Amino acid sequence: MPAPDTRTPTAQEDLALLCRAAEHAGEIALQFFRRDPKTWEKPGAGPVTEADYAVNSYLAETLQAARPGYGWLSEETPDNTERLDRDTVFIIDPIDGTRSFLQGSGSWAHSLAVAHRGQVIAGAVHMPERGFTFTATLGGGAWLNGAPLTASPRAALDGATLLANKFSLASKYWPHGLPPVRRHYRPSLAYRLGLVAEGRFDAMLVFRDTWEWDIAAGSLIATEAGARVSDRHGHALRFNTEHPVSSGLIAGGPAIHGALMHQLG
């Protein structure tokens, strides 16, 4: 009998695992899509559907069986402190954009990431209804369906395109004046980060506290495409923290990111 493989997987191997799992997760989710799935309200967190739970169950079983030494953090799994003792963890949002899923829109995604000692090293954002898969590994670039991604090189804030909800442009947030941008919106945070990585939008931001599972994969994809990604205060992101939230999120080409931070004071 051959000896068990005790070698530490590479980021590329982890990404391949994430992509295989995300593709099958999409097949599961599509069985419920536009078919009136059972839905519940999570207090203070919005809706969750039987599709979210089915995808989470599949991913938890498949990914943890493949990497039994990794910790686990998922929106749909009760959290515990065991993951804090692991150097490497999965950070998973089974369906990012559940409201979009329920509305029959295609702007929802499976967000799957692997973080090592607080830094994401592999990430996949898969959008089954649209046929998109954004991927990245640390130091390996960012890709959309195998094509390389480059974030927007735009330098001028005036007229830049910004993915944000309408409340983000309230004057109370901008002591140096409202940024002269053109606002757009997509419901999935993971998708917004992918769109910034793709260069289709110059930047995105969110001011509310943001769960790690919403942004882990997408933040790596945007960074590897050349965007700068930080919390709303300009601080670098860390993952697998005891309270797994970021103080908001700002992502964009380096010049636009800097200009937004200036406007924020």
TrEMBL record:
<comment type="similarity">
    <text>Belongs to the inositol monophosphatase superfamily.</text>
</comment>
<dbReference type="Pfam" id="PF00459">
    <property type="entry name" value="Inositol_P"/>
</dbReference>
<keyword id="KW-0479">Metal-binding</keyword>
<keyword id="KW-0378">Hydrolase</keyword>
<dbReference type="InterPro" id="IPR020550">
    <property type="entry name" value="Inositol_monophosphatase_CS"/>
</dbReference>
<dbReference type="InterPro" id="IPR000760">
    <property type="entry name" value="Inositol_monophosphatase-like"/>
</dbReference>
<keyword id="KW-0460">Magnesium</keyword>
<protein>
    <submittedName>
        <fullName>3'(2'),5'-bisphosphate nucleotidase CysQ</fullName>
        <ecNumber>3.1.3.7</ecNumber>
    </submittedName>
</protein>
<dbReference type="GO" id="GO:0008441">
    <property type="term" value="F:3'(2'),5'-bisphosphate nucleotidase activity"/>
</dbReference>
